[in-house]
Specification:
Strand content: 15-25%
Strand order of the largest sheet: 3-2-1-4-5-6
Radius of gyration: 19 Å
Oligomer: single chain
Number of strands: 6
Length: 137
């Protein structure tokens, strides 16, 4: 049986908090090709990607009713622990990033999500104040 290593797909783009969505066992000697394969396997092409047999869907994805396709801005982690390497989905292909950059990207994404949630909360409060002010008029 050939040696494989896990490739973890982490959705980190758009306006949601970063989350692990899938794990795919890959050939560690062909990382570039396997990153492209992981991209294809985690895209909704003819069917929902969560139905791909080669993909171990992360806990919570099915409960949420599915998952968006992997996109530019998402991250793949190849391997585990101190031996892991990280790749950022670029406009064309994948860029290897350091662990520190990976952590910075996750933190920046959380700051964006927090700002969006604060904006949404302020909008709800503004609407509630407006409704309260105009009630009975």
């Amino acid at each position: 049986m050939p040696i494989t290593t896990p490739l973890t797909v982490i959705h980190n783009a758009f306006d949601t908090a970063a989350r692990k969505v899938a794990v795919i066992q890959i050939d560690p000697t062909k990382v570039d090709a396997e990153l492209e394969r992981a991209y294809m396997l985690t895209n909704n092409i003819d069917t929902a990607w969560i139905e791909n047999e080669d993909v171990q869907v992360a806990q919570g994805v099915l409960d949420a009713g599915g998952c968006r396709s992997t996109s530019m801005g998402d991250i793949c982690q190849v391997g585990l622990g101190d031996n892991a390497t990280y790749y950022h989905c670029a406009m064309c292909g994948w860029d290897e990033i350091t662990h520190d950059v990976f952590v910075e990207m996750l933190m920046a994404q959380q700051v964006r999500v927090d700002a969006i949630e604060a904006e949404r909360a302020e909008e709800v409060a503004r609407r509630a104040r407006f409704l309260a002010a105009t009630e009975g008029k």
